[in-house]
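Review session, final week

We close the course with one last complete record, chosen because it touches almost every idea we covered. It is DNA-binding response regulator, a protein from Lactococcus allomyrinae with 238 residues. Go through it on your own first, then we will talk.
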Amino acid sequence: MENDVIKILICEDDPSVNKLLSLTMEVEEYDYTAVQTGKDALRELVTHRPDVLILDLGLPDMDGREIIEKVRGFSQLPIIVVSARGEETDKIGALDAGADDYLTKPFSTDELLARLRVSLRRAKFADKNLSALTEKTEFINGWLRIDFLSKCVFVNGEEIHLTPIEYKLLCLLSENIDRVLTYHFIVKEIWGYYEEDFSALRVFANTLRKKIELNPAHPKIIQTHIGVGYRMVKIDEK
């Protein structure tokens, strides 16, 4: 994928930050559109289908998290949040809604571009990375079933909704059932870069448990190995 065919949508209401982001995309020769409201962003997303959304949370007409939730109803494009909200609860909320990455203002444009490249690579090779799984049409472990063809997940026969990151984490664990995967390995496989902060991973592991475990307070399928990582346990009973 060449830069001149990659379409970036910027949604940022602060004029100075909007201009900085626009100039950065222009210098890097990305095809970009910059808007300042959530409504304009949703209109662009539906009509022009950009490859990546760079999104501020504090917009004048709606909260950025609401936009993420709406987008995830019809698209899996990478969403990078760039926000002045630095509280962990804001980060967790955005990631849980379906954002792929989160940068806190002030930020380095070099870091933003690095995250952007990672998101593009991850989107491009997502299916390839799961090729070993998709050779099989489904995965069953106790009450859990993954349909790889439709990318649907079922608990006791009932379909549940997973965010893109939750689905990737679930597939990665299922591909390595009964093996302990380290935090570093999981982050590298899902986000595509080395990270020492595992807070986002813990958020997704917890939200995934709430959706697939029969009793999230006493999880049986996803086991935590404290200080090491996570393991999907083989369940014999259904």
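Two points worth writing down before the exam:
DSSP finds nine helices and twelve strands in the chain.
The CA atoms of residues 33 and 217 lie 45 Å apart.
Good luck, everyone.
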